[in-house]
Amino acid sequence: MQQDEGSPHGSASILHADLDAFYASVEQRDDPTLRGRPVIVGGGVVLAASYEAKRRGVRTPMPGRQALRICPDAVVVPPRFEAYTAASRQVFGIFEQTTPLVEPLSVDEAFLEVGGLWRISGSPRQIAETLRHRVREEVGLPITVGIAGSKFLAKVASAVGKPDGLLEVPAGRELDFLHPLPVQRLWGVGEITAAKLAEQRITTVGQLAAESETRLAGILGPGAARHLHALAHARDPRRVRTGVRRRSIGAQRALGSQADPSILRPTLIVLTERVCQRLRRAERQASTVVLRLRFADYGRATRSRTLPAPSGQTEVIMTAALRLLSDAGPLIADRGCTLIGLSLANLDEYDSLQATLPLGGTDSTELDAAVDEIRRRWGSRTISRGVNVGQDPGLQVPMLPD
């Protein structure tokens, strides 16, 4: 962690800034009639829910029908990804005006290192208060900020401080804050791991910290034991990193427990188009196409295909993706599919010469560029493939990012 010569030694100087119920908050900001009401973004599946809906039990990615049974008075709105992208850019502009050390995590959260700014901007807490005020006043959105001496603790602090809060973990008090929390607050503890720990009467971080790494390895395996034992003792040496390029780009969609198999192909087509658009926007091209599936029995499967040459062309990548889906057909028929995702991996810098070489006898570079420009100017729903006409409107938008 970087420290200014005159800054307080060992001070908590990492911020984790996280917009609250981002998509739903944008909808409530733009439509005053939605404020204070339970709001669900997305129809077939819940992409986001306001805190009014979350308090009633609505969660992502819950099927829309289930969400409405839980919260029948919720207002369901279609997603508007252009509005979310614009809001995200405004917020990240404020982050970058706050400090040059910003590490994005997703469209609505980032780490900020502010340890060297105390003479210019004040203490980390003062900086966080200013940041929250600016996001509220300039963008119109609520944001929660956690402050700590490590990235892990800052992220936990923001989660505990939600919604619309500010929570600081003072230096030297890390374990006092961390140990009373449930083990689910540790990165890597999901339902299965939490259940295994609960069988051993380990339900809090403090109880986990009191166990030896050897005993934890017998419960969870050596890798998970080493990772969780370190976090339970607040050990996280990672620094805020800037300028790190992504190694993969992807998206996924939850389909619900009773998904109709006929929706898989059009869903994958939309995912492919959106991921390819993001790939080209980032001026990258991919060598590997990865299909991810989750089944009704909670099992998962991954299938991948390496392209003949790196590509950013939608048709090339879609052909590979649909072949992977076809190959997985018997598995899907036997086990049912509740989630489908697509990732593009082994990314390279965009090579304009290579990208224009015909692969498989076709070159869709100019078509891709034209479609990208139409969607950029007039929105993602202005142009769609025929296979998706009449489908769930939720298919017309990008899904949950990797």
Polypeptide structure, described:
This protein has 17 helices and 13 strands. Helix 4 runs antiparallel to helix 6. The protein folds into 3 domains: 1-171, Reverse transcriptase/Diguanylate cyclase domain (Alpha-Beta Plaits); 179-232, 5' to 3' exonuclease, C-terminal subdomain (DNA polymerase, domain 1, Orthogonal Bundle); 248-401, DNA polymerase, Y-family, little finger domain (Dna Ligase, domain 1, 2-Layer Sandwich), CATH 3.30.1490.100. It has helices at 22-30, 51-54, 64-70, 81-98, 118-121, 124-139, 151-161, 174-178, 191-199, 205-210, 213-220, 222-232, 264-281, 314-327, 329-335, 352-356, 365-378; strands spanning 14-19, 39-41, 48-49, 75-77, 102-106, 109-113, 143-148, 166-168, 248-254, 284-295, 300-311, 337-349, 400-401. The two termini are 27 Å apart. The strands form 3 sheets. A 5-stranded mixed β-sheet has the order 5-6-1-7-8. It has a 5-stranded antiparallel β-sheet with strand order 11-10-12-9-13. Strands 3-2-4 form a 3-stranded mixed β-sheet. It is of the alpha+beta class and 402 residues long. Residues 1-9, 351-362 and 387-402 have low confidence and may be disordered.
Largest sheet: 5 strands, mixed
User: Average pLDDT across residues?
Assistant: 83
CATH C-level category of the largest domain = Alpha Beta
What is the CATH superfamily label of the largest domain? Reverse transcriptase/Diguanylate cyclase domain
**In percent, how much strand structure appears in the residues?**
15-25%
Q: How are strands sequenced across the largest beta sheet? A: 5-6-1-7-8
End-to-end separation: 27 Å
- Low-confidence stretches are 1-9, 351-362, 387-402
CATH architecture of the largest domain: 2-Layer Sandwich
Sketch the topology as an H/E string, one letter per element. Answer: EHEEHHEHEEHHEHEHHHHHEHEEHHEHHE
Helix content range of the residues, please?
40-55%
Return the CATH topology of the largest domain.
Alpha-Beta Plaits
Number of DSSP strand runs: 13
Shape: globular
Q: Please indicate the count of domains.
A: 3
Structural class: alpha+beta
Cα-atom radius of gyration: 23 Å
Number of helices, counting only DSSP H or I runs of 4 residues or more: 17
